[in-house]
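Sharing a chain and its predicted structure for anyone who wants a worked example. Both blocks are below, sequence first, tokens second.
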Amino acid sequence: MQVRSGTSSPLSRRASEKLVAVRRRFGAGAHKKGTSGAVSHVYDYDHPHGLPLPELKQLVGGKAANIAVMAVELGLPVPPAFVVTTAACRQYLASGWPDGLDEELRTHMARMESLLGRGFGDTSDPLLVSVRSGAPVSMPGMMDTILNLGLTDVSEAGLAAATGNAGFAADCHRRFRTMYRSVVGFDAPTDPWQQLRGAVEAVFRSWNSDRAKAYRRHEGIPDDVGTAVTVQAMVFGNRCARSGTGVLFTRNPATGENLLYGDVLFQAQGEDVVAGTHKTMPISVLDERLPEVGAELRGYATALERHYADLCDIEFTIEGGKLWMLQVRVGKRSPQAALRIALDMANDPDFPLTRAEAVGRVAAILANPPTFTTENPDHDAPLATGLPASPGIASGEIALTPEAAAEAGEAGRSVILVRSETSPDDVHGMAKSAGILTSSGGLASHAAVVARGWGIPAVVGAADVVVGGADVLIGGRTFAAGELITIDGTTGEVFAGSVAGTRVVVPEAAPLLLWAKELGIAIGEPEAPCAPPPGQSAAAGGETTKVTLDDAIRVLAIKGFAKPDALGLALRTGLEDATALLEELVANGIAEAAVGSFRLTADGKAAGDVLINADATSWGATRSLAALDAFIVLDHRMKNVVTAWQTREIDGAQTFNDHTDAAYDAAVLASLADLHADADAWLAPVLCELPRLASYRERLTSAAAQATGGDGRYVASPRVDSYHSVWFELHEDLIRLAGRTRAEEVASGRA
């Protein structure tokens, strides 16, 4: 084996060059100069940056970049806003409040005042704003938001007089005081400008909150990116009965049905929808309560969907019957939904998507079409039913706190986190859970959003679930912490014990496959074999003749943490060589020791991003996305195998598998062998396109052989290089290669 030294490795050059380029472009070099020649840290929402959207997000964050698309490119009704850049956040966290930022805030607020005809801090008709985080990569609920900023005791009276609604003004002030105290840490000052600075600083600081750090660790997001801060004129969903707020998808992202899908809450503000503490209503209620707004929203949704020629998800607020659009993005969807959406769009003669384009969009999925679970008529009826927030079936022991869920997950046990509602402070337990069940909240609640983003089955708003301190009441039946339940995130049903069903191919596959045949588009045809990459063996157990520091950085970027033996297993090399690689990385400031393991430093994470992004560019966006889509179909089967290995039925009751039934275990291992055969066949052509993934193939083959040979640890134990452990790392790698994150990848249940 060869190990490149730190001084000669292209890693150090590439990482440093990339970091310099990024910071030049999105640091001082990217900012306009003011009249005094100083660097600007603030931009109006309609500023003509002239940057591609991905690069714009690095500068102003995803929220502000998307606002610009809607307001400037599409001319939709968007409340005026300005944004404080990610560079300002990084400077603040490194050395304090940037020079000149106070003056810039006043300049851009003055423009907003002139657009709206109201004054910030005015006592008779005050301009109020929201202050929201907006990282370049979506981190839902992880950082802080403050609404109704600018209110004081005096301006509350002015707002009441201007609107003729003292109750509304008092509600806004109450919300602001509570939120400001919670986020900033002290009572709101009476000077609105002090309020604004305190709020911006608090959002900057929230980048380093424990929950944000935990989320970034799970998602592999670099710690040194920082967040932008979007300051936007308030529109009030809580103003009157003709006001409200909501989120929607232009089609059902779980099934693909061509109906608006989402939540709305009247006389409320946006935080009420996502917090999970209020009972939301289906988006269709707008057609009854505010038909003119419902029609307008439907028109905007149609326009956006046609603009992107794809599924979109949207955030909106209604104030006194006036619709305001707050956010839009291309929506993620389940594999089944992807097929149905492609089929329906291409069948619509007025929609800008041809049959060939539709087939091409889902060709990878059609190679191994998704299946769904039919109802098991022999199983007991569900105990309770909630909202199907994130598709998939999950069985596990009940955990009533995030700490208990994290402990069980770390021990390798399947766990369902059961809460009244979840909050960002629960993410460490959610990350270790097989499923999430809440008694309150809607389809846009925190539990629903995070579960979809991480591909975790979830049922929310189950009114027949009552959570206590040591037990939970489900449909009138008491379950203690640790007892086994099953949730179905596709139907919203909750069962006692473990539930299994029969899987059949979704019906949308057949007509698309027929189109492919008629159009001469190859689906799933075997490709010519390719030679193994130089220095590597395509066979399981083959020796690797060259391992580089770059290889080690990629592994650490995906794993997060690794001991020398784990790094050696991942690289298919020995302990001595793995130790030497880690020592070299530490010496170059790329890795550091942490809690008995090693992890990448901030510069190491940047280097990892460079390497993975280079791989992604080489592979190509179309091929990487197609590979990920095909993998997701296999991932459904993997989850079923792991669940079956961990639980089984004994004397009519579902319990944890003690592995005393040899015939049962043999059947599960046979399913694992079948899965591995299909996964290996899927990987073979992928390796022709990106040879470095061969290490996953070798590790999966080795783990499958160990498991079927009698060592059950190699099915799913985190203490060895088990099949499930390798599978999870491969999934993470594919997500990053496709330019996605878990928060973006599995919206509405790609799992």
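Comments welcome. The CA atoms of residues 9 and 466 lie 58 Å apart.
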